[in-house]
Amino acid sequence: MNICCIGAGYVGGPTMAMIALKCPDIQVTVVDMNAARIAAWNSGTLPIYEPGLDDVVKQARGRNLHFSTDVAGNIKKAEIIFVSVNTPTKTYGVGAGRAADLRFIESVARTIAEQAENGKIIVEKSTIPVKTADAISTILAANTKGLRFQVLSNPEFLAEGTAVKDLTNPDRVLIGGERTPDGDKAVEKLVSVYARWVPRDRIITTNLWSSELSKLVANAFLAQRISSINSISALCEATGADVDEVANAIGKDSRIGPKFLKSSVGFGGSCFQKDILNLTYLCESFGLPEVAAYWNSVVTMNDWQKSRFAGRIVKELFNTVADKKIAVLGFAFKKDTNDTRESAAINICRDLLAEHAKVCVYDPKVPADEIKADTLGKGVDNPRLTIASDAYAACAGAHAIAIVTEWDEFRTLDYAKIFAGMPKPAFLFDGRNVVDLATLRKIGFRASGIGKPA
Questions:
Q1: Which of 75, 88, 226, 401 has the fewest CB atoms in 10 Å of its CB?
Q2: Which one from 5, 236, 271, 283 is the annotated catalytic residue?
Q3: Would you call 283 a catalytic residue per the annotation?
């Protein structure tokens, strides 16, 4: 069997690497028109950082895992084609700011229709709106060669930072297809690939529309839990309750459970906000404004949590941070990844710069030029924004420290040493609740966390 994946990003690369590792008899090729990205996948420095991914790629690359810019040639060879291209939120026209931009999906479908010389199984791996398979099927059916294609939905449920673990031992693999004899055969063909290492009872098969919708709903529910506990964190600060103690108490209820009840400065990443906005747009499109408003409130709460954190820094520093150095520790949206998409750090840095603070950022995995571009825009410079090579340099001479990403190294820094090099009073704002506030207060810090008693 030959498998081709169009799109060498955060989903396509790791997913295909795992399939190649677990199915050594299947030839797996990841194709992308971005030559620099393909070159990185073929190099010793992969274009994305994920714990354990280097080992997986090295074991399979050159044996049955390949990375190529030859899109047409690999479409012709493949029996199964995964579509794993970007589906960003539209920035123009109807649905701007909420609807998914499907131009790359359409472009891939047209390319497959043009290049294919026999029927294929097309697998939606990108996160897409419900009924996108209709559009893909219509484009494929319009080919002039009389070829028949089957379109399946196989959404990814990876969490960045744990992608290799999630691929090795997934909670479930979801595959949706048409309820027809040909559709059922296509579904079973894809099931047979995953069944090489995933227990059959964890492979769920549904109709196309249930599978497409499940991805959006899963992310919406997870984001909802974060916004819910973050809303309670503000109440905890006002009343003297401890949000971690509240989360532990309610998480012991088997009907609620403990996961995704960790209060923070807010969620980020490429999926949660994008998928919720897409879900709200879909609801409005189907005449369900009340449902759309309900889910939109999850994003509203998340945005408020970010601005609340920056506002608290300003308030605690005597209502002005102008010309004061603020050390921002962490820029990735979560630990163990170099992904900065929708990171809370972007909003916080922008808010502090708007208050004329001197912002110094340190992140162990995000390059300096990316931090500047995300915060200021490409090619824009601001002398108030600097990037440090380590946490101690970032904190030296800072009036306040803001922990924005939960990197493990921030738990074990020598805070006594850091405190000695800061103007007094020295402030620390823990946006991830990763440090011991009581210990920091003994050192002398005026330390506060999210949803923690003063």
A1: 88
A2: 271
A3: no
